[in-house]
Specification:
Helices cover about 35% and strands about 25% of the residues. By secondary structure, the protein is α+β, with helices and mostly antiparallel strands. An eight-stranded antiparallel barrel has the order 1-3-2-8-5-7-6-4. The longest helix is centred in the C-terminal third of the chain and has 23 residues.
């Protein structure tokens, strides 16, 4: 079972290395409400899944789907895809869910893709998260359209100990800033489909960011100090039940992003993306993510 102090090392790898990579691209503000659809892919069915998943964005574009989504495929853990969709409010989410209602022909097209995808999927799970700007850092500094990799961390807190996450986050953020690493990350708190959990999103333009970050671990440790380290470990032991920490790659072929993203990085998001394919989105799937939070 991983605790907070174990994840600090992992997060600091990318945070330290990411800073130089954020270019002068218009900021993509974190959505207030974030829907994450997780698709577990059956072992050795990645190839067939790819072929179906890459057809959802084309259909969305053809039908002028108003909701955009970013698809990520797992580089660590079991074969999975996640689709991120952002909304300003629950009301906006409702409007998206009702988009297909009353249009049987359009609905049937998505149903047909879902049926073709089903043999390659073992489980589909949706969660809804609420943005916590107070627990995030420098989100305006993130270059999301050029962030092709993400560290995604989920902290499952013990019941009644959610408040300790805030203290741990602030300890981490203070040490990060003290060590000169004002790197973007976004934090979300679980609302539905998940209990007593926090989500941290850390964008990376490439995995080289993690290599650079390795050299700054000692700087972070020195900034945290012995007392800070002991306090963080104590908080972790008392309040964190488990941590999921994984690296994900953005899949442009599975994503349906806004025009501003394509304009910012046309070679990557265009018709011939540089990266390998990504996963699907179920009818009504997912938009733009965010910058991350304290680990």
């Amino acid at each position: 079972m991983k605790k907070w102090h174990c994840s600090v090392a992992g997060l600091s790898l990318v945070l330290a290395g990411s800073l130089a990579a954020f270019a002068q691209t218009p900021a993509v503000p974190p959505p207030n409400i974030l829907n994450i659809e997780t698709i577990n892919i059956k072992p050795y069915e990645d190839g067939p899944y790819d072929k179906v998943a890459s057809q959802y964005p084309a259909l969305s574009q053809q039908l002028k789907d108003p909701t955009h989504f970013v698809a990520l495929e797992a580089l660590t853990g079991s074969p999975r895809a996640i689709y991120l969709t952002g909304y300003d409010s629950y009301e906006a989410l409702q409007k998206n869910e009702e988009w297909l209602l009353g249009d049987a022909a359009t609905d049937a097209k998505f149903d047909a893709l879902d049926a073709r995808e089903a043999p390659y999927v073992s489980e589909v799970h949706n969660t809804i998260w609420h943005s916590r700007p107070d627990l995030s850092n420098n989100v305006a500094g993130a270059d999301i359209p050029h962030s092709h990799y993400w560290e995604v961390i989920i902290f499952h807190m013990r019941s009644g100990h959610v408040g300790q996450f805030e203290e741990m986050t602030k300890l981490y953020r203070d040490a990060s800033l003290k060590s000169g690493q004002n790197v973007p990350w976004a934090t979300y708190q679980g609302l539905a489909g998940v209990t007593d959990a926090y989500l941290v999103l850390v964008p990376m333009t490439s995995l080289k960011d993690a290599d650079t970050g390795l050299a700054h671990q000692k700087d972070f440790g020195a900034a945290l100090g012995e007392e800070g380290g002991r306090r963080m470990s104590k908080l972790s032991e008392d309040s964190v039940a488990s941590v999921e920490d994984n690296i994900w790659m953005v899949n442009p072929e599975w994503s349906y992003v806004e025009k501003s993203w394509i304009d910012a990085d046309p070679q990557y998001w265009g018709s011939e993306p540089a990266a390998k394919p990504a996963r699907k989105r179920a009818a009504g799937a997912a938009p733009a993510p965010k910058a991350p939070s304290a680990n």
